[in-house]
Write a sequence for this structure.
């Protein structure tokens, strides 16, 4: 186990330009209220998903403890933002977890559905592409056709910011 | 009358359009005017944001630009879309470095984010029109017991969602009560539906869903009322899986608040496509003569 100072810096930089994360005193209100911790982890967070552990390891730069074989450590987060609300130090935990997920994707890891959604958005500008059966149903229900977005513009943006090359 | 740009979102627009149909009917009754725009995916605050935060910010800003070009506020039918569009707007308004970076990219497609419009969740717009809503109810849903589920992204993070309360939300309950139905309280009101985690880890997602639904069942609810398509799908399509896994019956029907209103405003179940729901409504509708 070693401290990765570069990783620490990236975590600090990502947190909306503030360094609130360093005020974490491990009170565990995040884990106490996390719905996924409740169904996956023991009290001390030695198994399953535990937001308190993630904040501690991110703050200390223990990158190896976050990016392990078990992707549940990162991807167990269901993005409910409950931890943000109960944190007495106003740490925006979910923003840190977004950074950890982005890093996981950089390494080519992460759940399949994240990649397939990103691909659908790149290809059609919609997370769920239009289908003829649904178009017909819209018409039958008296709904207007969906206005088609500009896929080229969206692809230009995704290519220029380097997101397109992470697609699988 | 103010006209909004309608942001129906990918799930409602391209998968469960019957919710858009009910919503448009209700908007017409209460005088909420909308028009369309060529919006792309918002993009998803649980999917694309986790994939690449810069992509999330940039595409979100691109969508905001489309509404800015017409000088109109956005009305969103979905918690996720509202969360993304409000979140992107909040972050760009409070972080000039991010704004500069995003605008540098947008300039390449001839756009610029200015931050001149507002993004509203349709529930908050309905709340502003509550008198008009009450005046349009012709078939009060007396006796129907409703468990409300406003959903995480309607109210959190508080700093950019600005709902009535991030942990004790009341707005959806007030809207349901206006239909004549009875709101039943239950312990797990603010518990997440678990949609995002179920996509990656079904075992934990279903265990969470069980916690939610057991609480709703114990409260004796006839139906669950929601205002988010991801929550809708989680409850509507995964109760069958839950019943199988835990060998216990889970079959509480789910109604979007606009579907509930459409029924209370006199539309028939057929007119708003309730037959497309996976968790069947038939016995509840018969019980209350709807």
């Amino acid at each position: 186990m070693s401290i990765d100072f570069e990783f620490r810096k990236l975590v600090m930089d990502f947190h909306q330009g503030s360094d609130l994360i360093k005020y974490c005193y491990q009170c565990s209100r995040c884990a106490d209220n996390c719905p996924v911790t409740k169904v996956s982890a023991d009290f001390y967070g030695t198994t399953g998903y535990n937001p308190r552990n993630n904040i501690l390891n991110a703050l200390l730069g223990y990158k190896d403890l976050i990016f392990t074989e078990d992707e549940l450590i990162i991807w167990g987060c269901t993005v409910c933002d409950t931890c943000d609300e109960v944190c007495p130090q106003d740490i925006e935990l979910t923003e840190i977890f977004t950074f950890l997920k982005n890093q996981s994707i950089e390494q080519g890891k992460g759940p399949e559905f994240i990649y397939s959604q990103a691909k659908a958005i790149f290809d059609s500008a919609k997370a769920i592409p239009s289908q003829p059966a649904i178009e017909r149903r819209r018409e039958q229900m008296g709904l207007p056709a969906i206005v088609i977005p500009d896929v080229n513009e969206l692809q230009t943006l995704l290519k220029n910011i380097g997101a397109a090359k992470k697609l699988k | 009358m103010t006209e909004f740009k309608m942001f129906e979102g990918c799930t409602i627009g391209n998968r469960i359009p019957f919710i858009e149909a009910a919503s448009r009917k209700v908007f017409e009754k209460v005088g909420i005017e909308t028009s369309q725009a060529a919006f792309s995916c918002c993009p998803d605050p649980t999917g694309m944001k986790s994939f690449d935060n810069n992509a999330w910010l940039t595409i979100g800003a691109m969508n905001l630009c489309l509404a800015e070009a017409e000088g109109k506020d956005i009305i969103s039918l979905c918690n996720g879309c509202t969360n993304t569009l409000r979140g992107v707007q909040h972050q760009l308004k409070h972080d000039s470095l991010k704004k500069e970076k995003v605008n540098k990219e947008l300039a390449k497609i001839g756009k610029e984010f200015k931050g001149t419009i507002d993004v509203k969740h349709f529930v908050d717009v309905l709340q502003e029109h509550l008198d008009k809503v009450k005046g349009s109810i012709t078939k009060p849903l007396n006796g129907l017991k409703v468990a409300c589920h406003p959903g995480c992204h309607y109210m959190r993070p508080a700093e950019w969602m600005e709902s009535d309360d991030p942990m004790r939300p009341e707005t959806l309950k007030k809207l349901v009560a206006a239909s004549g139905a009875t709101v039943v309280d239950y312990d797990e009101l603010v518990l997440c539906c678990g949609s995002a985690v179920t996509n990656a880890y079904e075992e934990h997602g279903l265990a969470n869903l069980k916690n939610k639904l057991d609480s709703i069942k114990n409260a004796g609810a006839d139906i669950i009322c929601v205002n988010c398509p991801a929550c809708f799908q989680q409850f509507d399509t995964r109760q069958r899986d839950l019943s199988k896994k835990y060998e216990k019956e889970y079959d509480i029907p789910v109604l979007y608040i606009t579907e509930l209103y459409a029924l209370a405003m006199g539309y028939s179940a057929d007119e708003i496509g309730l037959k497309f729901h996976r968790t069947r409504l038939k016995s509840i509708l018969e019980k209350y003569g709807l």
Q: What stands out?
A: Chain A is about 55% helix and 0% strand. The first helix of chain A runs from residue 5 to 14. Chain A has two domains: 5-106, 112-166. Chain A touches chain B through 67 residues (CB under 8 Å).
